[in-house]
Amino acid sequence: MRIRRAAGARAKAIVVLGLDPGLRHTGWGVIESDGAHLRFIDAGCISVDANASLATRLATLHSAVVEIATRFAPDEAAVEETFVNMNPASTLKLGQARGAVMLAPALAGIPVAEYSATQVKKSVTGAGHAAKEQVQAMIATLLPGFRGMGADAADALAAAICHAHHRGTAARLVEARSQRAL
Q1: What is the C-alpha separation between 179 and 181, in angstroms, rounded?
Q2: Which residues does the annotation mark as catalytic?
Q3: Partner of 66 at 20 to 30 A CA spacing, among 55, 58, 77, 139?
Q4: What's the domain count of the chain?
Q5: Model pLDDT, residue 126
Q6: Looking at the domain assignment, is residue 36 inside a domain?
Q7: pLDDT (tens digit per residue) in 4-45
Q8: What Rg, from alpha-carbon coordinates, does the chain have?
């Protein structure tokens, strides 16, 4: 079944904030998604003092993401899920950082979607277990303007791209179901 739109009808372009949480370095990236077209807006990395208390680091992360969300006014946000490693204490701290980062857009009323690292990498490179260098290379290809901003920013942009791809599919499914119900 093919979904038809009225002549000249276009989906509204949306601004997506991608976040790659970390306790010392949190990547962020902002893109605009207009159907299949993606446009790089900005990206960077929030770095916190590793010697600061956990509470201070979490507060710094949260405040920085609030500032970024205020500056770019995203319509939606995407966050990479926590990678569970062998050290439970490290995993717990990373989860706390992720919570601080997710809270900022959520409190601003911005919907936050979560994606596994495998989903994010597969959306950008076609392989769920791609190396960081592959992700960075694809981000530079997909988003001209992104250059030399580091792996954390590239991972955040990858999360935003993943969301842009998945949200479009979800919207088409909802539209198809509503057409079928008529």
Answers
A1: 5
A2: 20, 80, 152
A3: 139
A4: 1
A5: 80
A6: yes
A7: 444 445 568 999 999 999 989 999 999 999 988 999 999 999
A8: 17
